[in-house]
Amino acid sequence: MAEAVKRLNCILLVDDDPVSIFLTSTYLEDLQICGQVRVAGNGMEAFDYIREHCEVRQPVVPCNCPDLVILDIDMPLMNGFDFLEQCRQSDYLKIFKVIVLTSSKSRRDEERARQYPIVDYLVKPVTGSEWLTVIDREFEL
Hints:
- With 141 residues, the chain is α/β, with parallel strands linked by helices.
- It has one domain: Response regulator (Rossmann fold), CATH 3.40.50.2300.
- It is 38% helix and 20% strand.
């Protein structure tokens, strides 16, 4: 795998599937693009993390605030769409970028997700080279 020139400080991976979490985390670690990968098991847990670590009103984003959120759609308690809506209402989507990573091939889900300022809509499984392409494009690594 290609080594990135610049690394992201933090990525928040929001997914309830242990296999997907393992695969995505492994790809991200192998690509060496991120200092740390945090995991949230659903949108509510992710939103609590964002609220705790990201201050919209501060000019400098704290160290634990993610540069990127990788978001599944279908999760318990709070799904990905509800998470995106909460973040939009709280202005958090101005702080970090979002990639939707889902098993849904539904055109309707993709259209709904693209109503939010997401970077990309990826269907699982995603390879390491696909990750590198998307992240390099968005963060100029």
